UniProtKB/TrEMBL annotation:
It comes from the Bacteria. Residues 135-216 form the Baseplate J-like central domain. It holds the Pfam family Baseplate_J_M. InterPro entries: Baseplate_assembly_J_pred (IPR014507), Baseplate_J-like_C (IPR058530), Baseplate_J_M (IPR058531), Phage_Baseplate_Hub (IPR052726). This is Baseplate J protein. Residues 223-304 form the Baseplate J-like C-terminal domain. It comes from Aliidiomarina sanyensis.
Amino acid sequence: MTTYRLIDLSKVPVPDIIEVPDFEEKYQALKSMLINLDPDYAQSLSLESDPAARLLQVFAYREMYLTARINDATRANILASATGRDLDALASRYNIERLTIQPANPDANPPEPAAMEDDEALRRRVQMAFDGLNTAGSIDGYIFHALGANGLVRDALAASPQPTEIELTILSNEGNGHSSAELIESVRAHFGISADGTQQLGTSKIRPQGDRVTVQSASIISYQVEATIYLQQGPDASVIRQQAIAAAQKYADEQHRLGADITRSGLHRALHQPGVDNVELHQPDGNISVSPTQAAYCTSIDVNSEVSNG
């Protein structure tokens, strides 16, 4: 849980320019246009098999295709919906580029491509871009710059226990989220701090000269998910079980961030997939409270399934 409050992009209304294409509506509009130009076409256009009607159908399909292309182009230029290279282009407007998590290894057999920052992480940094236009003097600015320090930074928290003192907590993308010494050193270097954290160097363009910054790893709380799901008669038990496991893993991944609690209600909701009558959640046996400098990490998900009687 960071102190930074971002707009929930999923709740931003769809722009009016995005149109839901309707073939019949476009086809009828084209027919009306042609009949208005030449009323003699009214009789022939009443037959769907007439060549003129077929031609208008082709025009209507073509117009639908163009509408879909305009919709796609619009979405590609909106932060909430842009993905891949379209999102890279949006980020470049703010002088932000996608971070490399693991460099490519062309010498491997087969060659391994680079592992890059995912869309959601890049989208989040773009949302915070205006806090990066100056130094990291504000708490939000420190969070923005920490997220951009290294591709392995999954989440970051900045706190100021005393004036001019800044504590940065870093959650890693690797393993259970505990930051390695190398990652901590990388973040320190980004803020102009010596590798061992004992000296505030004077070469940083990010850290205000009077701030003393310390960088630490997040503390990790490990937990397991154990549950029994009771299924309705008929559906394929193995398919529903895999869906429940995937949903529970998705919940665990989404909550693997600083200060995010793990709740039994959240796990119940994830496990209760279509076809599930009831869920018995054995572990965790209570809600897991997570402090701002901690992150919860799910080590395993074990789901058994039984078919309900009756």
